[in-house]
């Protein structure tokens, strides 16, 4: 809750701005992977005038370029590299330049992707340009978003504001995938010609990123945002401490039950430590990365394995699954709905569950067991109805199998990712929390990269 002397968020403009910022930062990745049918058709050599862009029945051209594998890998490697580089280079670049410069670069690169819809080009050069665009977009995204998370840009600004605004930002990120899937479905159902449909689809994230830039630039002009974001340390710290205390009043045992409360509890303990224990040393020295890693290594390994399983089959394998029914409307919309839309909705629900309970806890050995059980999804998806196969049989041809597997796959991914990110801060001392967060971010990127690399192997085994 805001203090009595704080200005009101008129018309909830600040909250809406942070929601759009969260949505805009994750739109590029989601729009690329949901447009796999378009890219596969272009890479098969079909001309723009005849390609059924975004409306293929998924029984079309074979993915000779392994587009979905490469787009996943080249999306995650920059994330891994820039997670490391940002730890050393962030101080050299001002915050506004880092965020706005990266968002503008993403906007220009996505505008290039939209423009290529109207350009006739042979598959080879088109593939090279698209992959370069994917790589640079994710370099910029990693620089603006991951650097902000670690070094206090957007999340640092949110830290001085009521926790509702952090929730809105995270909700925007969580809904980016759903938004992309719905945009694809609308493109398919619009009835427009192929070029117009594809052009409208790729212009949509450009509008979203442009709105994010406008929202970020508007924050200093809103009284509510200026009150918290202005350089007034004593006022901001007092408000932050009060907000944390209010959030934790209902927790008698001070056990956090959500990702936000994990961080808030540790912050509150750190801020109160000098008052409650005046005789102890003022502040511990810089925490050792090795010591922190020894405390959280199992949780970090679980996070790596969760993302390794997820990215090894999604979207490389799952995007190849087709409906076993006869050609028709359901066959046309099957993969966009049952793969992308269903995954994003259930993943978002899974992440939301940690706001109500955290099970198993950090001392339980059930967490590694649950994480390892997810490896069963790899053969399950590979044995679904994938027409382009030469080695493995099809054991689960019915659509109901794939839908059931996707439900469990997505909700377990969202829940276990959120759970591991919640548990890691609880396993270290308050002054070690920042190092633990940096390590978990690195292992998150490592898991994504490992999964993207394995997707090549699993696709070759089909």
UniProtKB/TrEMBL annotation:
It is found in: Apical cell membrane; Basolateral cell membrane. Signal peptide: none annotated. Keywords: Cell membrane, Glycoprotein, Membrane, Phosphoprotein, Transmembrane, Transmembrane helix, Transport. This is Equilibrative nucleoside transporter 2. The keyword Cytoplasm does not apply. One of its GO terms (molecular function) is uridine transmembrane transporter activity. GO terms for biological process: adenine transport; adenosine transport; guanine transport; hypoxanthine transport; thymine transport. Bidirectional uniporter involved in the facilitative transport of nucleosides and nucleobases, and contributes to maintaining their cellular homeostasis. Functions as a Na(+)-independent, passive transporter. Involved in the transport of nucleosides such as inosine, adenosine, uridine, thymidine, cytidine and guanosine. Also able to transport purine nucleobases (hypoxanthine, adenine, guanine) and pyrimidine nucleobases (thymine, uracil). Involved in nucleoside transport at basolateral membrane of kidney cells, allowing liver absorption of nucleoside metabolites. SUPFAM superfamilies: MFS general substrate transporter. The chain crosses the membrane at residues 12-39, 70-90, 97-117, 164-186, 198-219, 296-321, 333-354, 366-388, 400-423, 435-458. It is a multi-pass membrane protein. The keyword Magnesium does not apply. It catalyses: guanine(out) = guanine(in); guanosine(in) = guanosine(out); cytidine(in) = cytidine(out); thymidine(in) = thymidine(out). Belongs to the SLC29A/ENT transporter (TC 2.A.57) family. One of its GO terms (cellular component) is apical plasma membrane.
